[in-house]
Specification:
Elements: H1 8-42, E1 44-46, E2 52-55, H2 59-66, H3 68-99, H4 106-118, H5 121-131, H6 138-145, H7 159-187, H8 191-199, H9 204-215, H10 217-232, H11 236-241, H12 253-263, H13 267-296
Antiparallel strand pairs: 1-2
Length: 297
């Protein structure tokens, strides 16, 4: 059009970014302000009301790293995260392959899959705490009636049984989301590839390894990172089922941090722990992304 400004297309290109700017600033404020405050608090001394009273340098980090309970909780967190994420990814992959097939009750099966994810984690943990209750839990009642045990097992009163039970509950509530992510990735794979492979005589295993696995690489990476961050930061399941007991043996980083901040009123040390957790998760995310990109190249 005659007389049109040559800068008009460039101006229009900025319109989407301008529309997203308010939401971006809001999210940045909600996320960055607490992170910044926590980082500052980690290097300060705080009173019982979380008011800054001075500069502490690296003292809070030294106290944290010398704390045997923190180191024990960190080890528990590593075991907890590894077990939950590995089991979740494996089971979810199998479930997504099954739900991707055509069968009569597939819509019903997919709806049932979402139910554990739709409910609150606290509610789910309360239900499972009742199921594994040592006195009135259905699990003990079934085991005793079946003759498998002669007396009740106090599942949540000892670490040897409480930690595996909580891992199982965490896997149960994590499967729906991860399966949905895998299912979306499977449905994005063109069916023509499988048909061509079948014509060429490829077996189901060969088709899975040569077609499904490469196409799910990015989806698998996203699911892994999200699950690691989600499980590493998990709080409701452990706190609701055992509160970190017995004798803090099932504490993970988040429950230990909560106790330091709101039970012991050591807000500065808790801030240092939070910064350490943030640094660990950032290092994992960046390292995993770099390794995945190199493998893809």
């Amino acid at each position: 059009m005659a007389g049109a400004s040559p800068f008009l297309p460039a101006r229009r290109a900025w319109i989407p970014y301008l529309c997203l700017l308010p939401a971006t600033l809001l999210v940045a404020a909600v996320l960055m302000v607490p992170i910044g405050e926590t980082c500052i608090n980690a290097f300060c001394t705080l009173d019982r009301y979380a008011n800054r009273t001075g500069f502490a340098g690296l003292r809070n980090f030294r106290v944290t790293l010398e704390d045997t309970e923190f180191r024990y909780a960190f080890w528990n967190t590593m075991v907890w995260t590894t077990a939950v994420v590995v089991l979740t990814l494996g089971i979810s992959l199998v479930a997504s392959l099954f739900l991707n097939r055509r069968f009569v009750l597939r819509p019903v099966a997919r709806a049932i899959l979402i139910l554990p994810w739709a409910s609150s984690l606290v509610i789910s943990a309360i239900v499972w705490r009742y199921i594994f209750d040592g006195e009135v839990g259905p699990v003990n009642a079934w085991l005793i009636q079946s003759g498998l045990v002669s007396e009740p097992i106090y599942w949540l009163a000892q670490r040897d049984t409480s930690f595996p039970v909580m891992i199982g509950v965490a896997v149960f509530v994590s499967i729906p989301f991860t399966t949905t992510v895998f299912l979306a990735g499977l449905q994005a794979i063109p069916r023509d590839l499988y048909e061509a492979a079948k014509v060429d005589g490829a077996s189901a295993v060969r088709s899975f390894l040569s077609i499904t696995v490469p196409h799910l690489r990015e989806v698998f990476a996203i699911a892994t990172v999200i699950n690691v961050i989600y499980v590493f930061n998990s709080f409701p399941i452990v706190w609701t089922m055992t509160g970190g007991g017995p004798a803090n043996t099932t504490d993970i980083i988040m429950t230990h941090l909560y106790k330091r901040a709101f039970t012991d009123k050591q807000f500065a040390v808790a801030s240092a722990e939070a910064v350490i957790v943030f640094a660990v998760l950032m290092a994992f995310s960046v390292t995993y992304s770099i390794l995945l990109r190199r493998r893809g190249d």
